[in-house]
Amino acid sequence: MTDLLLKSLDKQSSHPMQKQIYDIVRFAVLDHTLISGQKLPSSRALASDLKISRITISLAYDRLIAENYLITRAGNGTYVAPTLKQPLGAAPQSIHTQHSMQLSGRGSQLSFLPGGMGHTTGAFVPGVADSQAFPFHIWKRLIARHLSKGNLALSGYANHGGLSQLREAIAGYLKISRSVNCEPAQIIITSGTHQSVDLCARLLADVGDTAIVENPCHWAFPTVFAASGLEVAGGNVNDYGLDLENSYVPPRTKIVVVTPSHHYPTGVVMPLSRRLELLQSARAHNLWVIEDDYDSEFRYDGAPLPSLQGLDNDGRVIYIGTFSKAMFAGVRMGFLVVPSHLSKAFSRASTKLFRPGALHLQAALADFIYEGHFSQHIRKMRGEYSSRQDLLRFSLEKSLGDIVRLSSARAGLHVFAQFSADVNYQSVINESKREGIFLGTPCFVKNIPALENRCFVLGFGGVPLEKIETGVQSLTTAVSRSIDGERSSSSDPSDLGR
Amino acid sequence: MTDLLLKSLDKQSSHPMQKQIYDIVRFAVLDHTLISGQKLPSSRALASDLKISRITISLAYDRLIAENYLITRAGNGTYVAPTLKQPLGAAPQSIHTQHSMQLSGRGSQLSFLPGGMGHTTGAFVPGVADSQAFPFHIWKRLIARHLSKGNLALSGYANHGGLSQLREAIAGYLKISRSVNCEPAQIIITSGTHQSVDLCARLLADVGDTAIVENPCHWAFPTVFAASGLEVAGGNVNDYGLDLENSYVPPRTKIVVVTPSHHYPTGVVMPLSRRLELLQSARAHNLWVIEDDYDSEFRYDGAPLPSLQGLDNDGRVIYIGTFSKAMFAGVRMGFLVVPSHLSKAFSRASTKLFRPGALHLQAALADFIYEGHFSQHIRKMRGEYSSRQDLLRFSLEKSLGDIVRLSSARAGLHVFAQFSADVNYQSVINESKREGIFLGTPCFVKNIPALENRCFVLGFGGVPLEKIETGVQSLTTAVSRSIDGERSSSSDPSDLGR
After folding, report:
1. How many CA atoms, within 13 angstroms, populate the side-chain half-sphere of residue B47?
2. Within a domain: residue B234?
3. What residues does B258 pair with on adjacent strands?
4. Is A181 in the same domain as A260?
5. Chain-chain contact of B203 with A110 (C-beta, under 8 angstroms)
6. Which of A417, B36, B210, B366 qualifies as a cystine partner to B253, CB 3.0-4.6 A?
7. Are residues A248 and A182 in the same domain?
8. Any chain A CB within 8 A of the CB of B153?
9. Number of domain units in chain B
10. Does residue A460 fall inside a structural domain?
């Protein structure tokens, strides 16, 4: 023991001696270098041998005794405690090759499910708003207002689906701007669309049930559904949006998800007739309808169509909204509007599953809406995004018009671009990356004849107006290089043709 | 049509006429009062009949046309658009009696699973910290520092398990204070323990697998596990904590959860020998071990035992921590420390499942730790909570000592109290509520012989020192009244005895 310490102690180290002694003895007990029952030198003897203060030894001994590594026998010194008969054992040679401890099946599956882009800024990352333009000075002030001892209830957990002021503010906003038919009790505050979808998956479907998503769709739906044990099927999308009536509805289908105001990502707007048809078809199949109204704040050619939820007489539509697009991505607040007969079940489930809090943020957001900052910011951004979309469309048409077809809806924070068949998809992605351009790729549901190797989602929410043209130039360079590469590889004598 | 409007328009209403006309016509189209193909009066004629401005009518018509309720034929007027062959249908008589649209099986089950207390403040609500004492003025300043345009990356989504500064700060803290063996890459930031447990459930176990929890335990574990399709079994807890070796381990058990530093709720501290035994037993059964170290910051008689994770050589321990106790409940930040071979899988899964953000808060928390505010606050609260626990124990012993036995560990934010057999559990709860006292009740796992009708969890985190004695007085009153009630009901001649 004295030898061990003499060998191992480092008096030059910045680690206190007391901690060093503690660590050395502790590991020696654990790996049975010091054997259970072995007597230790007295603190006096050890202090003299090690030439350090006796109090240091005593303190280290005290901690080791308190933690059961050592025991004392009254008047008879300090001993190694009886712990295990064998040492705990060395670590396996390599944990990576240790196949007995593995992820679950669903855990492994998760790594194959679609996910978001690693990049969160730059041309043309989809799904992000312009946080540069967000009035952080106001937001900061509103948060500070509620982060004080004045209202301690705000520092606790959030029950009942969220802060009542915020639920009232959202209900008021949705009634007017989206013709959503709701009372504040139907609003459930979540940490964003992912949590909203998770709640729907668990409350509305069981393991093995099916959810129909639009094909293509936002990756959040197939991923979160699959992670909750649902099968995911793709519904047909045509020029009027999701065509449920002509889509295969597997047995045990419980949920259909739709983005009627602005289909993600193709940009199709679902007309009234299709909306009514969809509701009838959902009724016929007895499905819950999840309406994801992710970017309806941003329509540049008039008001958006009223929500599908407002047409629902059955209490079957669940409306999902988010503040990520109208404010900034990281704000992490969203909400569900659930039929009134489900509001208690949803608010209780949210409390039990997520134990939500962050009521200071909810209070700040309620003020942000009530004091008009929210609508003012949306108005401002609507003009800004409209100009960006115009310029992006114009630049794309000018530079790539002969090989690209753009979505038509003047809405949202992205443009959907379909390239002609002779463009190599992966090569465009790679060449764009070399130019510093990131292209969103649509998420298609498997087993459906896909256009996925020709379509891109070009986000402009995070791209200032003055950077749009240079972004398109870089993209054009990348596309040309990709086409040239194709040609030169086609002319390679070893090439066996298409 | 003119009649319909004459009948329905309300000129005294605060709703603009344009919106009223829009609503009336829209609903008339939807319920086929106006039939597809029917011609509408011209705006000029209608304006004259209704005695309102023609521009109002035109604007309402324009919106109805834009939204596909009406169509125009060039030079030939306005018509009801072809929508559905039948009307969409009236709402069912009562949505509540409509049994075809129901919650999923697991959604219904959720309402029977244990949950938290509705109250979040007062004597003796468990699980809450004293937010009154929290330095919100510092916290506010740190948040404001990062809520600006200086660092826009903070307004985006959080990838890679969270902000690197925060992961480094936590890793540093855990290494020193909890002997946790970790690198920053092993830290995954979550929105609290519920999300941490959810991630473990999905990544480490499949539907139908079993998780063993301590019996009793915190309600979050059985509830979140069951909601993710796991079976939940209770492991035996004795005076040394969880006794896995002598607990039934069902086939397909994948996870065991343990609170070794301070068992929730009984307060038992697991000694070293039991910890080593537990790790050996977990190895024998090939289980993942989740160590929930929820309140280790608060030990009032010396340093807490080092973490179980620090003893693990196999990479089988997942350590869960939270800032809810050391800061305040609503802060909603927690973390996992996962074995290094799982860190990529966990960080990717967190990104895909939760789409986290709120990086401003993470940056503020990193500063809070680095600048010493965190450890200063813990030191201060340690003294404060220690006094409260002393006083609570003293008062309980004095007033109820003959019928109550208290847990022994001087730690955490609660005291576990076991009443003698002749106290009626439900009656104590009810009488306490009448006195304004809320008692935490331990969560026992079903099918295990339970002491649940005699034990309470008394939280003092949210009770200022000066309110503890009056709280205990009120509790004593409630208990006496409950015992008197028992006696008088026992002396009731119709009483058939026990």
Report:
1. 13
2. yes
3. B291
4. yes
5. yes
6. B210
7. yes
8. yes
9. 3
10. yes
Q: Cα-atom radius of gyration of chain B, to the nearest Å?
A: 31
Give the domain range for residue B62.
2-80
Interface membership of A111 toward B (CB under 8 Å): yes
Residues B386 and B361 in one domain: no
Count CB-CB contacts under 10 A for residue B338: 29
**CATH number of the domain that residue B202 is part of:** 3.40.640.10
Same domain, B142 and B219: yes
CA distance B192 to B173: 18
pLDDT for the residue numbered B88: 55
Query: CA of A446, closest CA in chain B: separation in Å?
Result: 18
- Say yes or no: B153 and B272 in one domain: yes
Which of B177, B181, B348, B353 is most worth mutating to test chain A (most A CB atoms within 10 A of its CB)?
B353
Name the stretches of chain A with pLDDT < 70.
Answer: 83-100, 149-150, 446-453, 486-498
Q: Say if the Cβ atoms of A156 and B330 lie within 8 Å.
A: yes
User: Please, which residues 215-274 of chain B have a Cβ atom closer than 8 Å to chain A?
Assistant: 220, 223-224, 227, 229, 254, 271-273
Which chain B residues have a beta carbon less than 8 Å from that of A336? none
CATH number of the domain encompassing residue A487: 3.90.1150.10
Nearest-neighbour CA in chain B from A489: distance (Å): 36
Q: Which residues of A touch B84 (CB under 8 A)?
A: 273, 276-277, 280
> What is d(CA B154, CA B359) in angstroms, rounded to the nearest whole number?
5
My answer on whether B364 and B381 are in the same domain is: no
Report yes or no: A65 at the B interface, CB cutoff 8 Å.
Answer: no
Q: For residue range A348-375, list pLDDT tens digits in order.
A: 999 999 999 999 999 999 999 999 999 9
The reply to whether B362 and B402 lie within a common domain is no
Sequence length of chain B is: 498
Residues A20-79 pLDDT 10s:
888 888 888 887 788 888 888 888 888 888 888 988 898 888 888 877 788 888 778 888
The DSSP 8-state label assigned to residue A435 in this structure reads T
Q: What is d(CA A456, CA A153) in angstroms, rounded to the nearest whole number?
A: 47
User: What element of type H or E holds B473?
Assistant: helix B468-490
Q: Answer with the one of B375, B406, B434 that is the final residue of a domain.
A: B375
